Amino acid sequence: MSNALKGVLLVGGATLFWSLSGVFIRYVPEIDPWTLNAWRGLSTALSLLVWMVLLHGREVTGHFRRAAPLALVATACFFGIGSSLYIAAMQLASVAAVSCVAATSPLFAAVLARLWLKERTGLKVFIAIIAALAGVAIVALGEAGASLTGLSGALIAVIVALCFAGQSVTLRRYHDVAMEPALIIGGFGIFLVVLLVIGLQPIDGRSLAVIGLMGVFQLALPLVLFMRGARYVPAVQMVLISLADAILNPLWVFLVHGEVPAGSVYLGGAIILGAIAVATWPRRPVALA
Description:
Layout: H1 3-18, H2 21-27, H3 33-56, H4 60-66, H5 69-92, H6 95-102, H7 105-116, H8 123-146, H9 148-173, H10 179-198, H11 205-229, H12 235-242, H13 245-257, H14 263-280
């Protein structure tokens, strides 16, 4: 198996596990988003910490010491805020709407990279952003027709996309900083902030088990797969592969929970995914072998 094919399979596997978020969230609809994300953050942090200990042994503390403080804080904050709002959006709007709107993250990342990293951004990216925002408007208006909370969820998903874009650009700016320490700090940070500032809602054993499994299989495991796959797959291909989440996430929710999104989500989602595909598709085909 070539390294390129291995990378595609790893990134594809990460996207597959990431796309299970809606299924897990719909299993615990009675849990408020802050409590849900606090326990998910704790589970993710513990899982990644165990992974790092198994991988690096006693040298694990060195990875935390060598990390740039600003990179750790920025990544942890973007991760904490973005993942918390993602859960909130999922509980307000349909999974399809949130997935499609959150998929605009790569386009926002292109703008942030131009402003912060002075990276060149082509005209087609800005055209794609305008088209994607039109798609977001169609999705949001469709959710508004379904319910006012649906509109709120779709709009929150825009902030989620911005947070994920900020996280991506921060990691690109500090490319020599390992992702695991920042996400571990972010996961523990989410739990502590909710515990001390907001408070944790009482939760039964079944719900806690579902959220714990979510932290392991929907977040920690795909993060490990994605980081491994990033070694072999060009950034453009990674973006295109990860777009499958916008299709798989609502598909699993439909098959497991029977949730059907508003009709406008299909039109808006197609516009968003098409805009991102056009903006990120390479000028020359990238060989897999």
